[in-house]
Amino acid sequence: MIYAENILLCIAIPLVISLLFVRGDVRRYTAAFLFGMGVCLIAAYISGFLNLVSGMGENDTSVFLSPIVEELMKLMPLLFFIVLFTPEEHTLTMLAVAIGAGFATFENCCYILTSGAESFTFIMIRGLAVGVMHIVSILALAVWFIIAKHLQVFSFSSIIGGLSLSMVFHALYNLLVSEPGVSRNIGYLLPLLAAAGLYYLYRKLPHRL
Amino acid sequence: MNAEALLDLLQIIVLIVVFHENFRLIYANRGSVHLVFFAFAAACYLLSDLYWLVYDLLRPETRMPFAANEIGEWAFFLLLAASLGSPKADSFQNAKKEVLFTGLFVAASAGLWIGWSGEWMQDILTGIFYGYFLCTLVLRAKSERAMSDRGWRSLGIVCAVLIAVQTTIFFVPDAAKDPLDQFCYIILFAVSAVFLVRAVLSQRKDEPGKSVCHALAFLAWIETALYMSSGGYYIMAMILSLFSFPLILLAYKKEVSAK
Hints:
- The structure holds 2 protein chains of 2 kinds.
- Chain A is mainly alpha-helical.
- Chain A has helices at 4-19, 24-54, 58-85, 89-115, 120-150, 156-178, 182-208.
- Chain A has one domain (4-204).
- In chain A, 88% of the residues lie in helices and 0% in strands.
- In chain A, helix 1 (4-19) runs antiparallel to helix 2 (24-54) and helix 3 (58-85) crosses helix 5 (120-150).
- Chain B contains 11 helices and no strands.
- The chains are: A mainly alpha, B mainly alpha.
């Protein structure tokens, strides 16, 4: 049993105070990072609730339902920023990265407090796989939104389309790492490969459309 | 690896090729909206298929609970509908009967899916997204005059017979179920063959709008066949579905180059 709310408060308070002393992109990044941590806590509450309601068991809930909840929760602040502030392209990608990083950081903190931090290999896997995966899935969503805005096709269909891609990607990762053996190793590599592909796409695509 | 997983893998390879070719076309055509939506619909289908394949390999013989790939499937229908473009203002007036019948067909199909699987929420939601795609396709097909009045009537009769027979199967004794089932499969695959031939033949004609409708109609019917089949018939439907995405890509390619 860990007290996730207390951990969130402990990490968030210095960041909230730092918001008073910074301006511009740094302030936006920090605020989005805090949003990311906040939605991570809410996603954990919802997943816990679904675990009880569905009776699927903790493991199956985290493999099948958590990706849906987590990606939906990460989309919310991003959509909030898009609808309310219509940010520029670079601001949108920065906010997406910050939300993903905040989410991954808080999730990692809770995970480490539960499972311990003795094993360096485990810590590296946790950071490079889950950490990168949360950033990649929301950044891919932001890149898709940028493309959709460029082509003036930013609509309900495109939002659901982008969201479903990030959900299935996340779910695929969870499914692969849920079983020991080769599949788990492939799962750990998946976010890094996706990050490389996304980096290539991000550098090429928006400027050509 | 079983036949289903092997065909899933083949479908993934086909989709990767289609996706790659589609992106090449998007670059060449400065981001055609139809192609972009189709590319993302194909990506949703690709990831959902990949998820299904991984699940099948890691947890064989276990029923998959509600998972993200179902949301991928819903998004696939939404994005395909979006790839058809917005219907013209007067198109609903000219296609009221067809759209209404499509709605009834999808509602009855969703009822059958629930009867077979017992998954209320998933089947109702899948029905809504699938129905939206079918209605958009019907509106576009009507405005493009992709089918004659006789064709619409025949399709309506076939769909009504299919639903009626499938519903009857729930209530008849076990001995009568098998012949009725076989009858449904004959209808499903005969119509699939008709749609496939039409989709292939329309690629040769100089009517890009109709080609798109025929190719998507083939895909829609194959999806219906997949939802209504099991065992060896499901494998047959999967084999036929391998042709659907390349046909749609060719049709969109023709439409974009005509513009």
